[in-house]
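Researcher: Here's the sequence for the chain we discussed earlier.
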Amino acid sequence: MRVHPYLHPLATNPTVDPTPDQAVDPIELAAVRAALGGDLVARVKLGARALRKILRDPNDTRQVFTLFLVTNVRHIPGFLTRFVSEPGGLELLHERPAIDSRSIDFAALARLPADTLGGAFARHLSTRGLSPDVFQAPPGVPPTIAYLAQRMRQSHDIWHVITGYDTTVDDELALLAFSHGQSRMPGPALLAAVGAVRFSRQHPGVIRKVLDGFRRGKAARSMITARWEDLWETSLSEVRERFAIRAAAG
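Model: Thanks. This is the structure I predict for it:
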């Protein structure tokens, strides 16, 4: 098991149980039950309701989780197969490192230069008032799948940093399209496409940006099993070069 210098000083175990001791979100639990229950009508209804709420409030992360659970569930076995076949995937599933405030010393990351992955990531969170603890494992699913979801969720803001996409509505949609290009999961593609049409008046050029995001995600080298913990001190330019990514234009 790897031990990193940027572990939280109070962390006694550098891995995290994929079902942490926290209050279970009833909305997400309902989505899990609908996703696993095999009832197509229930999944469609729940997904449609979540999509409507997201389009009213793009910052409603819980509804994004719900939408992705019910739309991605049938694609998880294939994604898991791909995850374990890529370099480092099996090790991640075995060790289950987490990227949250219980596991990572974000104060130490913030002391890194701003042009390193760790320094840029810490600044991205702090300047935007974002918490790394929003992204946890979904409740009520097998541990391997729970960790897989947690890892992808906790990589989201790191992908923001690497791609150069900000947290504005149009950039979030572009990152969703990029994520679909990487993961091939339908949930991000659905939200990116519908969101681009919905917000095209408020954000001129968003459709073009979303299409470009998809192309960028598909063209880049896979990041789904990247061990970010090994790259905190690496310059952003080197990380981008490693994954064949150019920073998004401002």
